[in-house]
Amino acid sequence: MIAPSHPPASVTVQGSTRHLARGEDYDYFCDVVAPVYVGVRPDRPAGVFAADFALYDFGATGYGVLTTPPVSAQRDRSAIARLSDDALFLNFSRAPWVVEHLGRRWTVPGGVPFLLDNSMPFRIVVDPRRTLRLHSLRIPRGLLAREDVVRIDERVRATAAGAVLAAQAGLLATVVEEGRLAAAPAMSDAVVALLDAVDSSEDAPSADRLRVAQTSARERLGDPTYSVDALARAMGCSPRTVQSVFAAHGQTFAAWLRDERLQHARALLVDPAWQGRTIAAVAAASGFADVSAFHRAFRARFGCTPSSLR
Fold first, then answer.
1. Considering 38, 69, 196, 207, which has the largest number of Cβ atoms within 10 A of its Cβ?
2. Contact at 8 Å (CB) between 145 and 196?
3. Distant-in-sequence, close-in-space partners of 35: CB < 8 Å, separation ≥ 6
4. Distance, CA of 41 to CA of 44 (rounded, Å)
5. Three-state DSSP class for residue 74
6. What is the pTM of this model?
């Protein structure tokens, strides 16, 4: 059970590597943050390692905010043997990120919490073009009624309780970023309670599952290689399940994706910011690798050519 009262939140570690020389910045981060963060270690970058970090003690839970360069990080079996820890970490980022954990590769959409089991290896894979800003709530074993990490991560994206959890995790992140730490311990307790609600909630209605699938897929419209398999990995389910979700609403995933790409292309064609771009650029930004195929699909869908909208 979670304690009903909370001691004041306190800062465990806070700092930056931006004032340090190249090489020293990475070593300092690993010496100061990695041990407190229980063995999570970033890859050594080719250049500078400009990072900011703050770790807080909320009493029953701990909380960290890390901003790091776009390098991957991991906790492997050697790190687990060297510094054991069986806590759970609920991670939250406003940008999408990827994590390899418990035999799966999860694509985590921005604004969606993701639960990690720190007693098991994992690797965080980041976009090399984007700085990573990650909020992590450290939850000791025993605070959750059950600790089925995979089940929780699947249900965060597919249940109404998961949507509420995501909103609460976002509010907690905002409160910490704004320095309003007095409210943070109670809010972290609410997050833990919502994790239990996600674990015990009923399966999502079909419409909710469709909305989750479509939201995830829209983030990848510009990727011509995007497939039902990739969406299934992002949702933590099988491709057959994804197809069933669309079929329940009289659609196929392929047909829906094609129409979304065409709608996206039409929006770009009339966007003043894109008036100087070529039709080929619009096609590529909408996930069409072949310009001729784009022209044919656009005419079939809208009864006109792409250039006629300019």
1. 69
2. yes
3. 83
4. 9
5. strand
6. 0.66
